[in-house]
Amino acid sequence: AQVIEEYGGGKAYDKHLSESTKGDVELNLAARLSGKDAIGIRLQELKKIKPENIVKEGDVYKIKLSSKEAKGGNPREIPITEATYQEIKRLINSKGVKKGESIFRETVSKEILKVSGTGKALRSKGAKNPTLDTINRKKAESEILSLTDPDGFGLSQHGKDIIKMVMGHEISWSDKIYGLASSMKQKNAYLKNVRKLVDGEMTVREFE
After folding, report:
1. Which is more confidently placed, 76 or 175?
2. How many CB atoms lie within 10 A of CB 96?
3. Which end of the chain is more exposed for a tag (fewer CB within 10 A), N or C?
4. Which candidate, 139, 159, 129, places its Cα nearest to that of 32?
């Protein structure tokens, strides 16, 4: 939080991160995915995703993490926009990434920390082994969970659990989240609504 404030707040930090990585399409996309574009996907997960993890089911675009990519071995799906889906596809094509190969290079996190100066800023605050997740993932989670409508209506615990599940916390798809006999169609509806909420296309009340 201190580092973000030194940049002038969340929006100023996002702008700095975008501008400092704009010279490298791969770094720029990875930086945005580690924030709200992929609901704070962990960098260690991002570095493992392959072309087959980027899918479209109906009108829902997502990063489908299997037990091999997801931290803790807990599979989950992350909703992304159609524009982000197309960006990832373009990166795959431009790099010639084949099925079974990682889309992002192994050093992407360290490179972002270096070119943005974020790594240096974190170390100045005492972080011995700074990671992009320390800022981007936590920032995305904080901003999403604190979303409120103009009248002050905020997310219920159930709503927060859905967000945390998408982020890969110790909450998995269960009857508590979507009902005992949920279908893929119902799950996709939840993911679509999470994306709309994050993008400001749905109010908190509508989401709930």
Report:
1. 76
2. 7
3. N
4. 139
